[in-house]
Amino acid sequence: MKFTWQTLSLLTLLFYIYGCSSDKSLDQEVVDYSTIASGFLTGNGAEDIEIGGQVIRTASEFSDLIQKMNSYRDQSIEFDVAEFDFQTYMIIGIFADVKPTQAELSVTTISETDSEIFIDVSLTEMDNTIVTQPYLILQIPVSSKTLQSSL
Q1: Cα torsion at 81, 85, 89, 93 (round to 10°)?
Q2: Which of 3, 92, 120, 127 could form a disulfide with 138 if both were Cys (CB 3.0 to 4.6 A apart)?
Q3: pLDDT digits (tens, 9 = 90+) for 75-110
């Protein structure tokens, strides 16, 4: 009987510790966003764009990114928005690595904590044999928080 009470006490203590600990996922809030562009680059990496998430806070930074994206094939004609209010919004560019097939990225969720913004994206590869580098260009409210991407 003593073993049962000790086991029960230990389980209760563990339940209390893990049940009361702060879990980041519980403190996350959904972030509103809009997709400016979704597509893929076809330069086999010649555009020299960093893989992962990039935060763009100024028109100059956005112009530099567009210039890189257009260095092999004009991508900017696919953007939905011509001018951006960088006082209210920032741009997030998410770029996957070069894939041997056509592929696309899509947002699963964007959430934030007190210190970070988490962007969860999914990658879908297709049966086409064309070398691509999938990307997403998103607009979210201005923030000084650190960006984390699932890519």
Answers
A1: 50
A2: 92
A3: 776 665 557 889 999 999 999 999 998 899 999 999
Of the candidates 59, 25, 28, which has an alpha carbon nearest to the alpha carbon of residue 145? 28
CA–CA separation, 142 vs 132, rounded Å?
30
Distance CA 123, CA 42 (A): 16
CA distance 43 to 121: 22
- Which tokens is 14 given? 């563990």
Give dist(CA 57, CA 62) in Å, integer.
Answer: 8
What span, in angstroms and rounded, lies between the C-alpha atoms of 65 and 47? 10
Q: Name the residue ranges covered by the structural domains of the chain.
A: 29-149
